[in-house]
């Protein structure tokens, strides 16, 4: 289907527009028009309002990402199907024994298995809703005032990990906590490899 036809059929944004917007905003955030497109598409899927042609297009993912679900500690293998750079469907990775029994041998080419999906739970299937949620937490917030005061600063993820692991005088800027030393996780762990 041509880009003009896709627009006429209600897809709302063309591949060229998507790439242009992505170049402008970088990879860390989605432009409002893209979010509108995503939310509109998902809402139409959930309301069973897609036309037959649109449903057909949804089955023609132009890219599939094989990865793992981290929504619980099972870690199911995933096939993340994308159109125009937007996740439209998440299914199980048929090479993964958690999603298909017996699973496909690793020697089988992915080019031959594009229509074979494993099964995953509803939480895994709905992961794209979390990924595109406008309220998704993207930064680590660190308390910058007294408890309950509602003051926070954002810190890099790597800094948060370092502080949590090593501990220290993490709240020395907070009145009353200048000398409070926080114990890091590395001093608390009960087991380790010898
Ligand atoms: S697909 Fe479901 S069971 Fe599997 S890891 Fe994700 S949330 Fe857990």
Please specify the SSE layout and strand pairing.
Elements: H1 3-8, H2 15-25, H3 32-46, H4 52-58, E1 63-68, E2 77-83, E3 86-92, H5 122-125, H6 127-131, E4 140-143, E5 152-155, H7 157-166, E6 167-168, E7 182-183, H8 185-188
Antiparallel strand pairs: 1-2, 2-3, 4-5, 6-7
The protein binds iron/sulfur cluster.
Iron/sulfur cluster binds next to helix 5.
What is the number of beta strands?
7
Q: What share of residues is helical?
A: 25-40%
Structural class computed from helices and strand pairing = alpha+beta
Rg from alpha-carbon coordinates: 22 Å
Percent in strands: 15-25%
Order of strands across the main sheet: 1-2-3
CATH class of the largest domain: Mainly Beta
CATH fold descriptor of the largest domain: N-terminal domain of TfIIb
Largest sheet: 3 strands, antiparallel
Which CATH architecture of the largest domain is right?
Answer: Single Sheet
Uncertain stretches:
6-29
Q: N-to-C SSE series?
A: HHHHEEEHHEEHEEH
The whole-number mean of residue pLDDT values reads 80
For the termini, the CA-CA separation is 59 Å
């Amino acid at each position: 289907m041509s880009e003009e036809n896709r627009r006429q059929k209600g897809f709302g944004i063309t591949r060229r527009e998507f790439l242009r917007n992505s170049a402008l905003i970088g990879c860390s955030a989605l432009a409002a028009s893209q979010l509108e497109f995503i939310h509109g598409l998902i809402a139409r899927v959930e309301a069973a309002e897609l036309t037959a042609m649109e449903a057909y297009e949804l089955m023609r993912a132009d890219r599939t990402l094989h990865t793992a679900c981290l929504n619980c500690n099972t870690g199911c293998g995933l096939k993340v199907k994308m159109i125009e750079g937007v996740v439209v469907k998440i299914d199980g990775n048929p090479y993964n024994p958690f999603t298909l029994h017996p699973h496909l041998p690793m020697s089988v080419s992915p080019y031959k298995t594009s229509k074979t999906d494993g099964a995953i739970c509803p939480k895994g299937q709905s992961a794209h809703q979390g990924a595109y949620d406008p309220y998704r937490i993207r930064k680590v917030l660190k308390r910058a005032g007294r408890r309950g005061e509602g003051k926070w600063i954002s810190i890099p993820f790597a800094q948060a990990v370092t502080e949590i692991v090593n501990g220290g005088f993490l709240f020395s800027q907070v009145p009353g906590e200048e000398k409070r030393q926080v114990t890091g996780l590395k001093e608390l762990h009960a087991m380790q490899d010898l």
